[in-house]
Specification:
eight-stranded mixed beta sheet, OB fold (Dihydrolipoamide Acetyltransferase, E2P), BirA Bifunctional Protein, domain 2, five-stranded mixed β-barrel
Length: about 425
């Protein structure tokens, strides 16, 4: 094949006519005695290519006859509009080079979800997975953009830690030379030390939760967008969280129209998030709504389960902040509300369309004695938290933060049924491969 300047499939379609050279993988193939139709994909899009027996050399025709799905190719030809083609354009092939002949591809129609997870390394090539990955990239970029535009510093904390911040039973224990250590659940305790230097910080990093859960909402390894801010109170951190979600949705709607179409996502369900403020209700008001609107009686002091969160969200078309959960069921660092000591100064942001908790955050307790008491009550070793308690001894200030499971946001934005489809290679209680 002659040396040509290759352009992407999308660039070829934008050119609309004339000679083009593209390269990629065969997404679909159909053959007859006189014509071979190849739908070729690259990272930008797909395009139909036709090889006419009467117009190409015999060696080229014979090479094309052996092509199977996922064969990698380079080709040159004339592009023109064709409404019958999958994306409205067709290339009539003049020259073809097979880079690598694929073996029969194991992905076909009507295969089980578990099988597709088993061959995720190949299933990533599907149009829907590729669309999700592009949206996911936009989401990550938008998170960085949002915080940096507000003057936040990116800060990194250890992945291997001596103790937990959430719940001991959900820690992954690892052997660290001759010591027992754990994989991090959150950067928070280290971030609280760093705000005394940088004041406004954020991160996006992996977190790990050893939850024995097989639901469509849980991963054992996930990407965690977290923020910690000096001088912030509860309403300040809630405002920041609302701004983040709005910014991410705005960017996806601007940059990923084609990907949302491929995923058959109804964007009208995302638009209210940009147009409206997010309602803010207390835990007590949530219980009242459940009782009055959904006929569900929940005792004060119980955490909201998935079913209760979903019932609440049936009443709203935007995310909703639920604040002031019972202190006794919250993490040790969430302070009591001075106006109502049985409640904590905290929030969850619940997602519409049965997407559950997207973000969890709170003010941080400044009272060292209260922190020690809470840690003891949860059976934690105080010495594991000595560095954290030091931050309350030397010029402590009010501060607050939150954490967002990025895959939960991606799942909602993309309209996915299962969070496992919001990450390239999911890790769950039962899935460790590929």
């Amino acid at each position: 094949m002659k040396t040509e300047k290759f352009i992407s499939v999308k660039e070829a379609m934008e050119k609309k006519k004339g000679k083009v050279s593209v390269r990629g993988w065969v997404y679909r193939e159909r053959k007859s005695n006189q014509f071979i139709f190849l739908v070729v994909r690259d990272s930008s899009d797909i395009i139909q290519c036709v090889i006419k027996k009467e117009k190409v050399s015999e060696p080229l025709w014979k090479a094309a006859e052996k092509i199977l799905v996922e064969t990698s190719v380079k080709l040159t030809g004339d592009i023109k509009e064709d409404k019958r083609a999958p994306t409205g354009y067709e290339i009539e092939v003049e020259d073809l080079e097979v880079v690598h002949y694929a073996e029969p591809f194991p992905v076909a129609k009507d295969q089980s979800y578990e099988y597709l997870l088993d061959i995720r390394h190949l299933w990533l090539r599907s149009r829907k997975m590729t669309a999700m990955l592009k949206i996911r990239s936009t989401v990550f970029g938008a998170i960085h953009e949002y915080f940096r535009s507000l003057g936040y510093y990116e800060f990194h904390s250890p992945i291997i830690i001596p103790g937990g911040a959430e719940e001991g039973p959900t820690l992954f224990e690892i052997k660290y030379f001759d010591k027992k250590m754990y994989l991090t659940q959150t950067w928070q305790l280290y971030a609280e030390a760093a705000i005394f230097a940088l004041e406004k910080i954020y991160t996006i990093a992996p977190s790990f939760r050893a939850e024995r859960s097989k639901t469509s909402r849980h991963l054992t390894e996930y990407w965690h967008a977290e923020v910690e801010v000096a001088w912030f109170k509860l309403n300040d951190i809630i405002d920041l969280a609302e701004g983040l979600v709005k910014h991410v949705i705005k960017r996806v709607l601007e940059e990923n129209k084609e990907e949302l179409k491929i995923l058959e996502r109804d964007v009208k369900k995302l638009e209210p998030t940009l147009k409206k403020g997010f309602p803010r209700i207390t835990y007590a008001e949530a219980l009242k709504l459940l009782k009055e609107k959904k006929g569900m009686e929940v005792e004060w002091g119980k955490d909201l389960r998935t079913i209760e969160e979903e019932k609440i969200m049936e009443l709203f078309d935007t995310p909703v902040f639920v604040t002031h959960y019972p202190k006794e069921i919250m993490a040790f660092y969430k302070p009591r509300d001075p106006k109502d000591p049985k409640a904590a100064l905290c929030f969850d942001l619940l997602g519409p369309e049965a997407n559950g908790e997207l973000i969890g955050g709170s003010e941080r307790d400044m009272d060292i004695n209260e922190l020690i008491g809470s840690l003891k009550k949860k059976g934690e070793k105080i010495e594991d938290y000595s560095y954290y308690l030091d931050t309350r001894k030397y010029g402590s200030v009010p501060h607050a933060g939150f954490g967002m499971g990025v895959e939960r946001l991606v799942r909602w934005v993309c309209g996915l049924d299962n969070i496992k489809d919001a990450i390239p290679f999911p890790r769950t209680m039962t899935r460790t491969n590929p």
